[in-house]
Amino acid sequence: MKEWIRQLPSTEPTDAQKAQMARKYGMFLHFGVNTFGNVEWSDGGIDARSYQPEEIDADGWVKTAYEAGMNYVILITKHHDGFCLWDTKYTEYCVRNSGNPTDVVAEVAKACKKYGIQLGLYYSLWDRKEPTYEKDFTDGYIPYMLNQLTELMDGRYGEIIELWLDGPWEKYCEQWRYDLIYDTVKRLQPNCQIGINHTIGRCGLGNPEERYRPCNYQEGDPIRNFPSDFRLWDPFPCREDDPKLYMHDGQLYYMPFEMTICSREGFSWFYSNIYEQKPLLDVEDTVEKIKTAFKASNMVVINMPPNTKGRLCESDVEHLMEISKKLGMARI
Q1: Cis status, amide bond into 101, omega within 30 of 0
Q2: Cβ–Cβ under 8 Å, residues 100 and 56
Q3: Other C-beta atoms lying within 10 Å of the C-beta of residue 326
Q4: Alpha-carbon dihedral sign for residues 308, 89, 183, 132
Q5: Cβ atoms of 64 and 28 closer than 8 Å
Q6: Cα separation values, 90 from 5, 93, 130, Å
Q7: DSSP string over 186-218
């Protein structure tokens, strides 16, 4: 009989969690069809051919992360629209049929190896394109997800140190079969740390109530979805006495928090034709929030969306370097 891999209750961090907390500082990379549709979210209706970056400057993205003192990057592989940035076998809605067929995951993995940066991946649970999502969910969409996660985790892209799962609010917790997702990932990448957005709170449709925002966490709060490896709720900051122990089925689990920061004010994940008109975050305030997270033994990622040319915005890079220098993290 197959023995399932499970996260074990513990009031102390595992070795893999300690390694994640030591990574500390990373870059989030939002890129895809939304970049070319000038939207933050889309429903799968944007033509794949509209995705046509002049280049995929993965070397430049990762080099910037390295120079800023970051230790890892998290790349969007599939957002809620269902468009995949790698040449997946399981959907036609991917780079293979786009205006630029480059496997972006492969290019970022190669750049990470070059600069000694570790690779994490974001994958949207919610998929507004895939037909099986709305139909036979358990027998149709769950295998679809597991097949795609297997492609991403089977070693072709090297070691994957983090899996950032998003979109859990669209279905009830039990529908997602997190146990199967966790087992699939851990068998292929045992040290990969798995986080599910909106981690803490009561299970149900929609976002958890404000009581469960990171600034309000209390020890023993309920784990909303599944006892994964770390907590997420973007883009909210934590407090310095951020608690680490949370409850699932009457047992406590140790879970650090990863704080996500947009470079610009407002909801600014993907590049758009108005992105550079949005004000950059105040440097001093951002530095203080990051210092607070670090004091709490938590991780921080700063979002840096490539533009339609496939390159980072120069103003974002300058802003990031200013933040990193004030933190004493920059490598240049």
Answers
A1: no
A2: yes
A3: 16
A4: positive
A5: no
A6: 25, 9, 10
A7: HHH-TT-EEEEES-BS--SSSPPPGGGSGGG--
Are 232 and 207 a contacting pair, CB within 8 Å?
no
Longest dimension (CA), the chain: 58
Both structure tokens of 186:
């851990």
Which amino acid appears at position 15 of this protein?
A: D
Q: What are the helix (H) ranges across the chain? A: 15-23, 33-37, 58-67, 104-115, 142-153, 178-188, 283-295, 314-327
Per residue in 125-174, pLDDT tens?
A: 999 999 999 876 778 999 999 999 999 999 999 999 999 999 999 999 98
Can you read off the two tokens belonging to residue 182?
A: 């966790």
Could you tell me if 305 and 266 are in contact, meaning their C-beta atoms sit under 8 angstroms apart? no
Q: Cα–Cα distance between 158 and 172 in angstroms, integer? A: 33
Count of C-beta atoms within a 10 Å radius of residue 35: 23
DSSP 3-state percent helix, strand, coil across the chain (nearest 5): 35, 20, 45
Count each helix (H run) and each strand (E run) in the chain, helices first: 8, 10
- Residue pLDDT, tens place only, 296-305: 999 999 999 9
d(CA 17, CA 42): 33
Contacts of 100 (CB under 8 A, 6+ apart): 51, 52, 53, 56, 310
pTM across the whole model: 0.97
**Structural domains of the chain, with CATH:** 15-327 (3.20.20.80)
